[in-house]
Design brief:
Its main location: plastid. With 438 residues, the chain is mainly alpha-helical. It has 17 helices and four strands. A two-stranded antiparallel ribbon has the order 1-2. It has a two-stranded antiparallel ribbon with strand order 3-4.
């Protein structure tokens, strides 16, 4: 039987309290609750990870250590792999950090993973924690932190804020092995955005091509991620997110991702052991969620936090402050009333967060779902003239340029026949020339 792992809150400070975007998805066997919670579950064929692959998984990207932190949740110690493939940016086609076609294929595999493991919250958390270490006051890469794949190394995984994220790496490692020309930095952000979209959230305008850091010596120091229970929640949120270059609106919009996931007291010190919303899973049951449908991305988080009527729903200090702080409250009230506005602002904030600190190759990034380039409108001489003669391409371009210069177009023909007018003008000029010559 595949191992079931319930995930800790989005981040845990040294005192084991969950941070700002604390979500604790459980994944494992599908239950009847999955159809109720997950909008995309019934829409796609599922593909589960085999128990053999789960049990034999090896963290090739982690360095072994004589001590195993409690943050690894009783997992086995994994041997190190000193290959350049693991400690450097993965092999990729020339000019690109990641291969666009492999990115697209990896996205499909992530969708299958989401529909079989219901791991949306932890994948969102993984992307956030890799990019959330960014410091806008540091120019050098990778010292500035951000979305650079450093979270794959043990030294950073052992940060208290990242408790449980080793399980997200365990889920994604088979996909990484399959698509070697995709960087870890891209894979983490691809998984995060896809999880939001597959849970019913907005389409996020992502770009890819992030370069990976080469080794654990380039991981950021501990303490850059936010806490959930600081003495002054509003000030703490601003200290952390202003350091990333984010605004009050973006802080509130990103808080809305708490609509996904649940918190477990044995890991975070927050939440109940079980509620009526979490006792049946899907995945390993238990924990306390922020919303009743904790695998559905919508604006119910803001509604539930505002009302605070359901004792089975979690409200952290950093959640409550969104309706207590005057500046935050403007946006929280708006999102509680208008899901479309929330989706729009969240998509923009998520995309911005996912790019923080990243170094792109190519510099402009790779867009997987950009607008298709429409083919040039075909020139049809019949639309401009009643003549049947086929014109050369050069003549078509000339005539079209002249025609459009005087206000004509295929959809808005001129009142009179353009070619006939030209012929009349030429004839008049010929007559005048003849008369003047005589």
């Amino acid at each position: 039987m595949a191992e079931r792992v319930s995930l800790a809150s989005i981040s845990l400070p040294q005192s084991h309290t969950p941070t700002f975007m604390a979500s604790a998805a459980a994944f494992g066997g599908a239950t009847a609750a999955s159809a109720r919670l997950l909008p995309s579950a019934a829409a796609r064929a599922t593909a589960s990870l085999s128990s053999s692959s789960a049990s034999s998984f090896s963290f090739k990207c982690l360095r072994s250590s004589p001590l195993v932190s409690h943050l690894f949740l009783g997992q086995k110690r994994f041997s190190a792999c000193a290959s350049n493939r693991r400690f450097n940016s993965v092999s990729a086609p020339k000019c690109f950090a990641s291969d666009p076609e492999q990115l697209k294929s990896a996205r499909e595999d992530i969708r299958d993973l989401l529909n079989s493991k219901f791991c949306h919250p932890i994948l969102v958390r993984l992307g956030w924690h890799d990019s959330g270490t960014y410091n806008k006051n540091i120019e050098e890469w990778p010292q500035r932190g951000g979305a650079n794949g450093s979270l794959r190394f043990e030294v950073e995984l052992k940060h208290a804020a990242n408790a449980g994220l080793v399980n997200a790496l365990k889920l994604l490692e088979p996909i990484k092995d399959k698509y070697s020309a995709v960087t870890y930095a891209d894979l983490f952000q691809l998984a995060s955005a896809t999880a939001v979209e597959e849970a019913g959230g907005p389409k996020i305008p992502m770009k890819y091509g992030r370069v990976d850091v080469s080794g654990p010596q380039e991981c950021p120091e501990e303490g850059r991620l936010p806490d959930a229970g600081p003495p002054s929640p509003a000030s703490h949120l601003r200290d952390v997110f202003y350091r990333m270059g984010l605004s009050d609106k973006e802080i509130v919009a990103l808080s809305g991702a708490h609509t996904l996931g649940r918190s477990r007291p044995e890991r975070s010190g927050w939440g109940k052991q079980e509620t009526k919303y979490t006792k049946d899973g899907p995945g390993a049951p238990g924990g306390q969620s922020w919303t009743a449908q904790w695998l559905k991305f919508d604006n119910s988080y803001f509604k539930d936090i505002k009302e605070r009527r359901d004792e089975d729903l979690l409200v952290l200090p950093t959640d409550a402050v969104l309706f207590d702080d005057p500046s935050f409250k403007v946006y929280a009230e708006k999102y509680a009333e208008d899901q479309e506005a929330f989706f729009k602002d969240y998509a923009e904030a998520h995309a911005k967060l996912s790019n923080l600190g990243a170094k792109f190759d190519p510099p402009e990034g790779i867009v997987l779902d950009g607008p298709s380039n429409a083919a040039p409108e075909k020139f049809e001489a019949a639309k401009y003239s009643s003549g049947k003669r086929e014109l050369s391409d050069n003549m078509k371009q000339k005539i079209r340029a002249e025609y459009e210069a005087i206000g004509g177009s295929p959809d808005k023909p001129l009142q009179s026949n353009y070619f006939l007018n030209i012929m009349i003008v030429v004839a008049v000029l010929a007559i005048l020339t003849s008369l003047l010559g005589n």
